[in-house]
Amino acid sequence: MAVSVEAPTLRMLQSPHVELFSQGAEARIYIYTPPSSTTTWLDDSKDVAGSPRSIAGSSAADQLIIKHRFPKKYRHPSLSANLTASRTSLEARALLRAARDGINVPALRFVDETQGVIGLQQIRGRTVRRCLGAGDEGEEEEESESTHTVSEHVLSDAASEALDERTQSQVMILIGRQLALLHAADIIHGDLTTSNMIYVEAEPGMLGRVVLIDFGLTSQSSSAEDRAVDLYVLERAFASTHAGSEHLFTQILDTYFTETDVIRKGKGKGLKSAEILRTLEKVRLRGRKRSMVG
Questions:
Q1: Which end of the chain has less Cβ packing within 10 Å, N or C?
Q2: Is residue 120 over pLDDT 70?
């Protein structure tokens, strides 16, 4: 008689060191707190999706985030399994590609495509949403299916007050640079919101970092259309969440377009910023037409 063997990653979720943090429509988010005597998932010398010490405030002994895409009972089992494996693989590969191209993303600790489980670095920081004075998702508006109550990588003890205007402006520049690098790597995030960006403060007098998270809807594309749609999603997020933030999003775009041309010049290939801007205007027009007709 065949013996059913549970996958190690699923057994791990039952560990006393693992705590359910939140649940969304697509995944459950757990926090793994390693005991003091545990070994690390990755050797410190390995730079896989950013080494354990590559982001300020982190260390190899930090908590881990475990994201589990649980089976959907309303789907046929084989379809659910295929979708889970595909989406998990896409997310893991996007994180690795992003890290190789110098983009700030959580380090990938482990992945189990079959079970839909990803282990990720915990980030010490706060969402850009909070940095701009808004509460976590779910406090003021209904959260989207791809998000999980609060940022899935932010420690709860992070400061929550809004940043001053000068620092907010610096954060917008950091966001623009990260998005330019992301798109230059042909990675489309798919769900850009201020909840999916973490600001990691640095030492006094030093510039902090913006870390992009939640690549659950990511895809790979080099088209101006997909890049423009990615930017438009973020623009709408700013408009709906941060009143009077037009000047902040303008700073993101200005930096994005400038950096896009710098990267293109360095690589000798890629889309010009003017082409992406023209496409963004078309996407905006389509969005306004949809709003008019309801």
A1: N
A2: yes
Residue 157 confidence (pLDDT): 44
Catalytic residues, by residue number, are 191
DSSP E strands in 51-186: the ranges are 64-68, 108-112, 117-121, 126-127
Element (H, E) at 90: helix 77-100
Q: What is the total count of domains within the chain?
A: 1
| DSSP E strand boundaries for the chain | 18-23, 28-32, 64-68, 108-112, 117-121, 126-127, 187-188, 197-200, 209-212, 219-220
Gyration radius of the chain over CA positions:
19
- Whether the CB-CB separation of 196 and 269 falls below 8 Å is answered with no
Secondary structure (3-state) at 188: strand
**Would residue 286 count as lying in a domain?**
yes
Query: Does a structural domain hold residue 142?
Result: yes
Stretch 73-90: mean pLDDT:
93
Q: What is the CATH number of the domain that holds 154?
A: 1.10.510.10
What range does the domain containing 167 cover?
Answer: 9-293
Q: Which residue has the tokens 């259309």?
A: 225
Helix, strand or coil, per DSSP, at residue 229: helix
pLDDT at residue 204, rounded to an integer: 78
171 HSE (CA, 13 A, CB side): 27
Rounded-to-integer distance, Cα 136 and Cα 150, Å: 6
Q: Is residue 13 part of a domain?
A: yes
Other CB atoms within 10 A of residue 39 CB? 8
**C-alpha–C-alpha distance, residues 167 and 158, integer Å:** 17
The pTM (predicted TM-score) of the whole model is: 0.83
In a domain, 287, yes or no: yes
